[in-house]
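In keeping with the milestone schedule agreed at the kick-off meeting, the structural modelling team has produced records for the first pair of proteins. Each record is given below as a sequence line and a structure-token line. The laboratory manager (R.T.) confirmed that both were archived under the project's standard naming scheme.
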Amino acid sequence: MMRLRRFVVVTAVLLSLPSFAGCFKATGGGKLTGPNGESITTGFQLRCDDVGSSGHITGEFQYRDHGTGVAFHAVIDQFFLDPCESLDQQLTDAGVQGTLSASGTYTPQPTDLGLPGTILVVIQDQTNTTGATGCNPPDGGIDSLAVQLTGGFYGGRTLQACLEKGNFTVFSE
């Protein structure tokens, strides 16, 4: 319950401050364990590019829950009012380096399962910091992932989990 509460707080903060998108790339993948012990695998590649005076995050995100059968592919495509460099500086000033929050459209896999919907994904690379999602062992933070799906076949599902194997990397360009 504490992890869910932290997810709600982190998501609310990230949604209220679009500056958390930053001018960086996020790449990675690995294995997580869901709330009921199910094995989850994920992989992603995201980047921020300037389009005129706006930041634009694009990329792809793949997710498979081997216990429940939930599987989807997401295309991330989100514009922000500020350019990437400005967003990156706001992120640093806010003290949450290594966090990327972006939204896009998910498609259930296989594609004939049902309608697509919207995804919000929050990726935290906690190499040298303490995570806001509750993934805090005594010796430092652990990479984490939070996913919220709305609409479509899997609408209403949320997940927050700590990375067990693999690596999430969020870095400035």
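The second protein of the pair:
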Amino acid sequence: MNDQPWWRGVDPGHRLTGKRAFVTGAGTAPGGDLLGIGEAIAVLFASQGAKVAVAAIPHLKRAGGGSIINVSSVAATRALGAGAYAASKAAIQALTRDWALLHGRDHIRANCIVVGHAHTPMGTTDEAGRERRRLVSLLGTEGVAWDIAWPAVFLASEESRWISGVDLPVDAGATATTALGIHMLNRSGRTEGELGPSIPPSTSSTSPVT
């Protein structure tokens, strides 16, 4: 039996070695075997060697630059009856663009991940609810916390050095179409897909994203 932590050896590419970034709005919830977005990002950043700023923007300025990664929700761009939650997430997207403008010349990039209907401890966990959620996306696959964490790694890395002020939808294409489009897709019988695991196998030696 392998007693090593399940995340040990996850894509040890050290893409973030020496990089500085901070992530806001990445919700998580304690308990059970489900992995929240915030925890997944923390695990990947730790394994990749990123320095996460506590003092945030002043710290990044003193360090000579870095990356701000805000986490929003499709509730900010589509009506879901989320009220104040939706308004708060829309505000995060507006702040992202402002920070990109105000701090870009300090070599600080600011981007926002707009999360779709992913399987996390904060959402519906029953099988019927998960299936409904899966079928509202173009890919027909269920997103998990890792599917949000890996784009955060990309936005913190040198690979995204020329990207700032962007709202990046991570939603399996759900917001790229309309309710009618999804209805027509599902009526066509193209409903194959899969539900995603909440935790990758401990034997994984590469990316945990499925």
